[in-house]
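Annual report, structural modelling task.

Input specification for the AR6 complex:
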Amino acid sequence: MPLQIIRNDITKIKCDAIVNAANASLLGGGGVDGAIHKAAGRGLLLECRKLGGCGVGQAKITGGYRLPCRYVIHTVGPRWKGGAQGEKELLESCYRESLRLALENGCESVAFPLISSGTYGYPKDQALRVAVDVISGFLTGHDMTVYIVVFDKSSFQISEKLFSDIASYIDDKCVETHFAFRRTRRNDCGESMALKEAGTVPDDASVQMSSMPGAASLEDMMCRIDESFSQMLLRKIDEKNMTDAECYKKANIDRKLFSKIRSDVHYRPSKTTAIAFAIALELSLDETKDMLMKAGFALSHSNKFDIIIEYFITNKNYNVFEINEALFAFDQNLLGA
Ligand code: AR6
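The model returned the following structure:
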């Protein structure tokens, strides 16, 4: 997964570089800066003393010393002053400059804290938005694994409106599922009937055939029933006039995994990988269900993860990074490898 949001202490992350949310002196401080200096040891401070400080929005690189990473990239985020003092541009610059230094130094993996979102007071949901936008933009042109490391749940926030919209969508769907079960029990039709009513269990081949857009003939349909996940994926990439790279990047899947799927016609992806491709291809809900079926999965209304995916697809929001932010906020697995 090229962009991952994880909950951890950044000083514990094994990767090529970690980024420090420093101050202009580069001589240490509190928060993540203090934790990094403490874990790295005195060698880091001695090297930092030679750097002559760092401007807001700029970045400088040092060794990692006792940390489990080769480098520390120090960047100075803006202090929040209400949002009209160029804070967003400066914060974007922190991520861009840090990624540029990582690239120049041959890093294949980099971990970021949410810069400026602590002592410097940048609103957490907006700080996250900037981080995800700049990093995902960078990843469309470069192969790198980037982690956004969230220290504790309280330091991570998606927009309140999105959170409450999703929460009420989950509630609605749970209520629907509950009533579907009750109706079924009264009719004494068994569990599978209830699940079908709630739209979770596809009705085998007949559903597949009826929901096959663009199938020209019965022969075509029969071929597609035998199609594997990998074959379906490659066909849909062609139908959408996408390149392979456009598709796997939009799915937040790394090149190696995509090559594996491409070269193994019987590849069985995980559910999160299969959904990530459905999102990248901007499939409708029915098409997504067809694609998932090829990998042996279904979407259910008794599962929070599935309902969140359904929420984004029905709202035609196919931004895998925004979906992952929401999944993280609801403590669910993220899309991608
Ligand atoms: N791992 C990951 N994230 C962490 C960790 C950790 N070990 N510790 C804190 N965070 P802050 P800023 C999160 O205040 O807002 C320093 O004194 C934290 O929850 O460290 O850019 C510097 O010297 C928050 O979400 O950095 C500067 O003077 C995020 O890291 C000033 O603070 C950033 O919080 C910089 O302020």
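The two ends are 5 Å apart (CA to CA).
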